[in-house]
Specification:
single chain, about 425 residues, alpha+beta, Helix Hairpins, 8-stranded mixed beta sheet, 12 helices
Length: about 425
């Protein structure tokens, strides 16, 4: 959530940010109107309270003089009725203002590229060279089905399309990658692991910005008002919801969770196989940092995700997302994309974002500055990294002419010494 004071004092800056996103900036005028009405009502309430206090004090004096106080008491009751009516109006206006504020996306960092959509993204660096094949590379679907590590037919029968089923070495590969990534982040990147719930309540979803914007993209257990998490970002960031972080910053947390998203099953390219699915696994990194350090922290966070891919020997590129392609809550974002030769395409496996104080304001997460004053923290998160597209890249980059797959050296210890998946 944006700071209402920022909207009030720098409305043109907010309008420009929304325009850069391609969002409707008319909401700024709506917010300013509601804020003006709210402050006017509060002033009216305070004026009447002061008047009621003043008049109430005259009752005792009038009684001492033996005067009838009925008229004065009636005046006090009348002022009380007016105060109650104004309080109700304040609640209505504040609710409307909060609804509008929750619907406003974050203002993009002024230094990111301006563009309408993914076409405006900029490649900032790449690592590794795509492998040259002396045979036509197969897709992960062909490879996985031949190797017997996928069973899409049974998964569809037991649940539905978009819910993958991995078998044997495929299941072990998934588990090995999760363990490898967690170990790397914990032992070398300085994160503390947590094991959070896979469902969160509405307040938590609102705190990180998934609600109300992305309500239709998520699975909701309406009877319990719980949401299946689309990313570990939600429970991990909400670890400190409505708290003041008393320990020194930065705080670095990592977690593995399953993730659930409705939109993944949209018709089109990638609906077969592992590229677009409703359920997937992900290792997430979250940072709580002092505001002055958040953009430096974003570079470090992104480097942590890149380290995962470099140690696996997979060619990737880093994109700086433009204003029209960053997420609702982000101020700046990098995407990491792996080369998948069987797809002849780049696949996103990580988004690393700086939210500045946008999530912290929504979730009420603060820290104490050098003077001991409570301030809103800056939050960042990044996939470190997401499966199963990582599995796609490993299979397609490691495939051999005989249909087997050579595994990256970094995960062989996690595979019990298995160096290759064969039929």
């Amino acid at each position: 959530m944006l700071d209402i004071k920022r909207v009030r004092e720098r409305p043109d800056e907010i309008r420009q940010g929304l325009q850069a996103r391609g969002a409707d900036d008319a909401v700024v005028d709506t917010v300013l109107d509601l804020d003006t009405r709210r402050r006017g009502l509060l002033t009216g309430t305070e004026t009447r309270k002061n008047e009621r206090n003043r008049v109430s004090r005259t009752i005792g004096e009038a009684r001492k003089r033996g005067e009838d106080t009925a008229a004065i008491q009636a005046q006090v009751r009348g002022l009380g009725d007016e105060i109650n009516a104004l309080d109700e109006q304040v609640r209505e206006v504040e609710a409307a203002l909060e609804q509008q504020m929750l619907a406003i996306p974050n203002v993009p960092c002024p230094h990111i590229p301006v563009g309408p959509d993914a076409s405006g993204n900029r490649v900032v660096r790449s690592w590794g060279e795509p492998r040259a094949f002396d045979f036509e590379p197969k897709s992960h679907i062909e490879l996985g089905e031949t190797l017997g590590i996928f069973d899409f037919a049974r998964a569809t029968r037991m649940t539905g399309a978009g819910f993958p089923l991995l078998v044997g070495a495929g299941a072990r590969l998934q588990r090995a990658l999760i363990q490898y990534m967690l170990d790397l982040h914990i032992t070398e990147h300085g994160y503390t692991e947590i094991w959070p719930p896979a469902l969160c309540n509405t307040k938590s979803m609102t705190g990180t910005g998934q609600l109300p914007k992305m309500q239709e993209d998520m699975y909701h257990l309406a009877e319990d008002d719980l949401w299946m998490i689309p990313t570990a970002e939600v429970p991990v960031t909400n670890y400190y919801r409505e708290e003041i972080i008393e320990q020194p910053l930065p705080v670095l947390l990592t977690a593995y969770t399953p993730c659930f998203r409705r939109e993944a099953g949209a018709a089109g390219k990638g609906t077969r196989g592992l590229i677009r699915v409703h359920q997937f696994d992900k290792v997430e990194m979250v940072r709580f940092v002092e505001p002055s350090t958040s953009y430096e922290a974003l570079e470090t966070l992104t480097a942590n995700a890149e380290d995962v891919l470099q140690r696996l020997g997979l060619p990737y590129r880093v994109l700086e997302l433009c204003s029209g392609d960053i997420s609702f809550a982000a101020a700046k974002c990098y995407d990491l994309e792996l080369w998948a030769p069987g797809q002849h395409d780049w696949l996103e496996v990580s988004s690393c974002s700086n939210f500045e104080d946008f999530q912290a304001r929504r979730a009420g997460i603060r820290y104490r500055d050098s003077e001991g004053k409570a301030q809103y923290v800056h939050t960042l998160n990044g996939s470190g990294v997401a499966l199963p597209r990582l599995v796609v890249a490993i299979l397609e980059n490691g495939q051999q002419a005989d249909g087997s797959v050579v595994l990256p050296a970094a995960i062989i210890p996690y595979m019990g010494g298995m160096e290759r998946i064969t039929v």
